[in-house]
Amino acid sequence: MGVNMPINSRQLLFRIFFTLALAAPLIACSKKYSYKEDAVPEQISLTLRLKKLFQVTKLVCFGRYALAVPKEAQIVWGGTYFPSKISSFLGSVETLREKAEEDIEKIKYDDKGAEITYDKSGPIELSWQIRYFDSKAAKQLNLLFFNTYVSKGNIIFRLGNAVDEGQSEEQIAAVEESRSKSLHLRLDDGIISPTEGYCIEHAFMASSFYGDQEMVEIGIYLPSLPDVTFSISSNKDAYADYPNEEFEKEKREELSLLTRIRKAQEEQGTMYPQRIVLREGKRAVQHWHGEESLIKRLDGVHDFEWGFVGTPKDVANPSEFIVNMYTKVEHNLVGAAKKASVTDDEAVALWDRLLSGLKFRVKVPGAPEGSYYLPEHKSSTTNAE
Predict the structure, then answer these.
(1) Adjacent-strand bridge partners of 63
(2) Rounded CA gap, 218 and 157, in Å?
(3) Contact 176, 157 (CB under 8 A)
(4) Whole-number Cα distances in Å, 31 to 7, 246, 265
(5) pLDDT at 18 over 50
(6) 281, 273 Cβ separation under 8 angstroms
(7) With 0-12 CB in 10 A as exposed, 13-18 as middle and 19+ as buried, what is 205?
(8) Domains delineated in the chain
(9) Which distant-in-sequence residues (6+ apart) come within 8 Å of 172 by Cβ?
(10) pTM for the complete prediction?
């Protein structure tokens, strides 16, 4: 017996059927990329060219972390905060004052009410410091900013800071002096071992204190695979303004990668972008029990993400930890390249190899054995495959 339905209902049913019919073969393609047990993926063998790429590896350090990468790999630095923003520029001690003057000019240009309250050499040898209100409102609120410029070799480091509520100008001045003294130049990606502290671009900041904010963002560039980008970002104190109980009850599940994907699918329905799911599920990296989503877009872009939601202010388990990998990248635009330089197998194998090489540089409070490289691991290794 036939069932009559309005034409628009039949069209809707056809669209749903067409979408499901299209999605079915896409998901079926993912069977070879699976998990042998919960949070542990099946091993995908490296192809000959990837074996050659990883034949000689090195450790690069950023923040409190180190990553095992091919020898040819280069770090592309993003933001670094320890505990506040740190920037670096090419320049010598002769241009130290010049850099400070450039910043003063910009501060005054951005707001006519800005006021420079301190502009002197120090707090250590080969350094300069300015203190300023960036507006009349900032002065009324006693929001005083610091810029400390430290010369090391042919690099000038700018350490930013500010007087926060309950702090004095003298306290922040002492903090900036301590930070300046802790700054040591690094050669290339060289790692200072086994000192506790933080790797920044070109330098290392020695410190055994773990109570401050820590943020770092970096990318990895592989000359042999120029369209592939691999990036890592970590924020120790993200969501620290939430009480612990509220964070656990309301935010942890909401922030999980798989939950965010599921909610987007529910909200967007048939408008959710079609994708080939290569692998998606729980994924442990060292002691970080996170989640991953490995998809291939219909335009051929590999779009891989791993996310871990830790505990705010816990240095061993940063509250926000994210890793991404994309292919078909050109001029910093995902999808701009004509085609991906790696196959699906190579993309998954490359992802697994790089992600498994993410550890702490040295042990931090609360981190288990095996979650850090130094002093056991050498900074350069030759791998026999």
Answers:
(1) 199
(2) 18
(3) no
(4) 38, 38, 21
(5) no
(6) no
(7) buried
(8) 28-81+212-382 (3.40.1000.10), 86-170 (no CATH)
(9) 144, 146, 161, 162, 163
(10) 0.88
